[in-house]
Design a protein that fits this description.
Protein name: Lon protease homolog
Number of domains: 6
Pfam families: AAA, Lon_C, Lon_lid, LON_substr_bdg
CATH class of the largest domain: Alpha Beta
Bound molecules: adenosine-5'-diphosphate
Keywords: ATP-binding, Hydrolase, Nucleotide-binding, Peroxisome, Protease, Serine protease
Distance between the termini: 96 Å
Structural class: alpha/beta
EC number: 3.4.21.-
Number of helices: 27
GO molecular function: ATP binding; ATP hydrolysis activity; ATP-dependent peptidase activity; serine-type endopeptidase activity
CATH architecture of the largest domain: 2-Layer Sandwich
Length: 774
């Protein structure tokens, strides 16, 4: 029950690939346990300090005898140290220590350095009296000296071969100061032998095997306390673990694949069709060389989950590699092993995780790779994705080639604009547009609600969400292209219901007490009088709610709070100088209210709302066109002049001021908004528009029509003004959405203005009306 109190000075090591730590401590004194106070989580005991006390209790009784003993001990110690190679700095230091340290500390220190068994060390530790300690240590020293003499005789040639501080036993290395336990050493030695065996029996490539055998040879010679030891060992363990030759068997059957895809995902016909084509070619050709699929679309439209389904249909392992924000090429390709804390890249790590060499890797968010001083990760990805090169992909950490040609890569992105062209070139882009309201309702009822019920341990008998409620959530609580927020809201509803159900189960145990109905969630109870409601607040008296709990609008409001989005856009259009534009963002389409106002001034144009250069230019174009056409349209400034900017300042604002916006497509909206401002007329409240303008008043086509139309539809708008040349894009929009909207295809601004104002926007000279073509 004697131990050493010590101060931890340093802890070094790592947890990867398995915990391996070195602890450096300074011993302070001996202590004895008087009473164990508690054992968990770590032992706490009342202790008594033993060292030094002794000197006081023993007084100077055996001073002389001790002096003799310590002198003798010192001599042996010096003899031992001088037998060692004094040119090694640590030995020289030890020699100096012998002189400088107090004699009574020497037995402890030397016992820890010389070769002793654990048993012997413990005996010295237990020897509380100094005299006893000296007496016990001297034989150990003598033994060591004899051993060393013998060793020097037999292995003279090997004497100076390495930096052993105390060469005690052939093939064993103990560096000064480290306390290496016998068993541990043996264990480690066994480990290395095991590792070597594993390397020899693993199916790694010839080149890799050669490197590994060389490394293991080095490892055997290395002292364990060297940082490189752990590094090399980690490296070798990774090499053994990598799936050099291990693969799952593909079970590709197109009919089954179609069923899996259809079962997992509603709608997205185009995407599913393309994926099936891709898989069919793979089945016929029996290899996977070909373009990498890249799904591009707003968040939450199921890009990742389609990737997962593809892995499922192929019977392959699935691994997702998130690339968002990765700005260091060593994230892809690993660090060289010379760096401290070096690691393999994500590709090799992924392979280690899945344990086979033919998984489906989903490279998520390739559009969010960034460049930095540490290199361009996109360039590193090029090698990974190129089927001609990736059979010999070399990770810097591995430093040997690994064959990636069996891996099926799928990429996802929100936009192709920020994907480096060289990378884009290697991928086949499949656009995944947002969903319509009807599709969202179907997705919610077929997939999201069952999934959420299961997640929350509910059954369909306990909760009922009618379609109108789902529609309510979609239109009033979310405004998104995908279904992720919808999924979250459904999750929130399930949580609330789970509380009710759990409370109900609790109360069923004592039903006799309950008399009064409860009903935050229940439609039936909403009309209950105030008194009952107040009682129902004291939860104890409440009855279990009737099953299934119906989620209606009242319940929605209770659970999700007041609606976040208003369907009513007309309110904002009740004064001149406001028009609705359509914008495209990587998150899908959006409607945007453009606002304009005028005031006395010197003809300046102020633009707010974080606009890019192109958008600012659009605003200038719009003003110029209106000024040059002011007479034709009878547009005047406040003082009745046709020079619109005479003594007038104009301010244009694009809301959501914190979001940067750019692009030419707001041109027609700015013109309409300003035309409304100067004519004093209101823009129709159900019209949205998009299109680029020219100085001569032509309307040019723009991108993202599909997403924009869906956004307008989501917002409940009825009429959309588009450039004539975008007519072809309308084909991709679902028929039922097209039916609910009226499209006005315009080639020039006159047509736009005519469609945007009730009763047209008359041109004074010739009252010609250009009607829509649809
Ligand atoms: P993304 O990768 O496009 O951002 P996810 O694949 O993570 O989106 O999809 C978000 C959630 O929406 C997933 O739980 C997915 O199952 C669901 N989801 C999306 N689209 C569909 C669909 N068409 N059918 C069924 N579930 C869908």
């Amino acid at each position: 029950r004697i131990g050493t109190a010590a101060l931890a000075v340093q802890v070094v090591g790592s947890n990867w690939p398995k915990p391996h730590y070195t602890l450096l401590v300074t011993g302070l004194c001996r202590f004895q346990i008087l009473q164990l106070l508690k054992e968990k989580p770590y032992p706490v005991a009342e202790v008594q300090q033993l060292d030094r006390l002794e000197q006081f209790t023993n007084g100077h009784k055996s001073e002389e005898e001790l002096g003799e003993l310590s002198e003798q001990f010192y001599k042996y110690a010096v003899q031992l140290v001088e037998m060692l190679d004094m040119s090694v700095p640590a030995v020289a230091k030890l020699r100096r220590l012998l002189d400088n340290l107090p004699r009574e500390a020497l037995p402890d220190i030397l016992t820890s350095i010389i070769r002793t068994t654990n048993q012997e060390k413990l005996q010295i530790l237990d020897a509380v009296r100094l005299e006893e300690r000296f007496k016990m240590t001297i034989p150990l020293l003598v033994r060591q000296i004899e051993g060393l003499k013998l060793l020097q005789k037999t292995r003279k040639s090997k004497q100076d071969d390495d930096k052993r501080v105390v060469a005690i036993r052939p093939n064993r290395r103990i560096s000064h100061g480290s306390i290496t336990e016998d068993e541990e050493e043996e264990e480690d030695h066994d480990d290395v032998v095991m590792l070597e065996k594993k390397i020899r029996t693993s199916s790694m490539s010839e080149q890799a095997l050669k490197v590994c055998l060389k490394e293991i040879k080095r490892l055997k010679k290395m002292p364990q306390s060297m940082p490189e030891y752990a590094l090399t060992r980690n490296y070798l363990e990774l090499m053994v673990e990598l799936p050099w030759n291990k693969s799952t068997k593909d079970r590709l059957e197109i009919r089954a694949a179609r069923i899996v895809l259809d079962n997992d995902h509603y709608a997205m016909e185009k995407l599913k069709k393309r994926v099936l084509e891709y898989l069919a070619v793979r089945q016929l050709k029996n290899n996977l060389k070909g373009p990498i699929l890249c799904f591009v679309g707003p968040p939450g439209v199921g890009k990742t989950s389609v990737g997962r389904s593809i892995a499922k249909t192929l019977g392959r392992e699935f691994h997702r590699i998130a690339l968002g924000g990765v700005c260091d090429q060593s994230d892809i390709r690993g660090h060289r092993r010379t760096y401290v804390g070096s690691m393999p890249g994500r590709i090799i790590n992924g392979l280690k995780t899945v344990g086979v060499n033919n998984p489906v890797f989903l490279l998520d968010e390739v559009d969010k790779l960034a460049k930095s001083l540490q290199g361009d990760p996109a360039a590193a990805l090029l090698e990974v994705l190129d089927p001609e090169q990736n059979h010999s992909f070399t990770d810097h950490y591995l430093n040997v080639a690994f064959d990636l040609s069996q891996v099926l890569f799928i990429a996802t992105a929100n936009t192709t604009a920020t994907i480096p062209p060289a990378l884009l070139d290697r991928m086949e882009v499949i656009q995944v547009p947002g969903y319509t309201q009807e599709e969202k309702i179907e997705i919610a009822h077929r997939h999201l609600i069952p999934k959420q019920l299961e997640l929350h341990g509910l059954t369909p008998q306990q909760i009922q969400i009618p379609q109108v409620t789902t529609l309510g959530i979609i239109t009033r609580y979310t405004r998104e292209a995908g279904v992720r927020a919808l999924d979250r809201k459904l999750g929130a509803i399930c949580r609330a219901v789970a509380v009710k159900v759990a409370e109900g189960q609790h109360k069923e145990a004592k039903p006799d007490r309950a008399e009064v109905g409860e009903g935050e969630d229940c439609k039936e109870h909403v009309t209950e009088d105030a008194k009952q409601e107040s009682i129902s607040d004291t939860a104890d008296l409440a009855l279990p709610p009737e099953m299934p709990i119906l989620i209606d609008f009242h319940a929605l409001k209770d659970i999700l709070g007041p609606p976040m989005y208003d369907m009513e856009v007309s309110e904002r259009l009740n004064q001149p100088g406001v028009a609705i534009g359509l914008a495209w963002t990587p998150l899908g389409g959006e409607i945007m209210f453009v606002e304009a106002s005028r005031m006395d001034g010197e003809g300046q144009l102020t633009l707010t709302g974080q606009l890019g250069d192109v958008m600012k230019e659009s605003a200038h174009l719009a003003i110029s066109w209106l000024r040059s056409n002011a007479k034709r349209y009878q547009l005047t400034n406040a003082s009745g002049s046709f020079d619109l900017l005479d003594n007038t300042d104009i301010h244009l604002h694009f809301p959501a001021g914190a979001v940067t916006k750019d692009g030419p497509s707001a041109g027609v909206t700015i013109v309409t908004c300003l035309a409304s401002l100067f004519s004093g007329r209101l823009v129709c409240s159900d019209v949205a528009m998009t299109g680029e303008i020219t100085l001569r008043g032509l309307v040019l086509p723009v991108g993202g029509i599909k997403d924009k139309v869906l956004a307008a539809h989501r917002a409940g708008l009825k009429r959309i003004i588009l450039p004539q040349r975008n007519e072809k894009d309308l084909e991709e929009i679902a028929a039922h959405v097209r039916q609910e909207l009226t499209f006005v295809l315009a080639t020039c601004l006159d047509e736009v203005l005519n469609a945007a104002f009730d009763g047209g926007f008359a041109v004074k000279a010739s009252l010609e009306h250009l009607n829509s073509k649809l």
